[in-house]
Write a structure and sequence with these properties.
single chain; Rossmann fold; 4 helices; globular
Length: about 150
């Protein structure tokens, strides 16, 4: 059975977060797992650049019938465009993944990251939280490792 790892992350990604992301993608490749990612700026965008460097061909999910930033790695991605908005797209990625890794900057502006990781937790899927500046949004535990 193929293990699909969803990476969700903040749009405002710091350099330490990008460095951690590179190590996470290297781990995914070394385990021969597959990668699922959205197509926002920040962590998603960096995934799309890093994945081919480690021999990965990520599944990139777009919302509203399109892929943002279509010039990134056009031949090296398996693109899935969905109708509906970004929260629906995030739920579909959560439904399809085996586990989720959330690289979060602790900012409320990264609500899609939190939404997606919480959705995966609610499905009973393993979620690994990696953060730069932890900050509780809802009182639930939200992290297990600093970047």
């Amino acid at each position: 059975m193929t293990r699909l790892v969803l990476i969700t992350g903040s749009r405002q990604a710091s350099m330490p977060m990008i460095a951690k992301l590179a190590r996470v993608i290297m781990w995914i490749a070394s385990e021969r797992y597959e990668l699922i990612v959205g197509e926002a700026s920040g962590i998603d965008e960096a995934c799309r650049y890093f994945a081919p460097e480690f021999g990965l061909r990520p599944y990139v999910y777009g919302a509203n019938g399109t892929i943002r930033q279509p010039d990134i790695n056009p031949e090296g991605e398996l693109r899935v465009t969905l109708s509906g908005g970004y929260l629906r797209r995030n739920r579909v990625m959560g439904d399809r993944c085996s586990m989720c890794i959330a690289l979060w900057n602790g900012q409320r502006l990264s609500s899609g990251t939190v939404y997606t990781a919480r959705y995966c937790e609610d499905l009973g899927k393993p979620v690994r939280w990696l953060w730069h500046h932890p900050q509780a949004l809802d009182g639930r535990p939200h992290g297990d490792e600093n970047v």
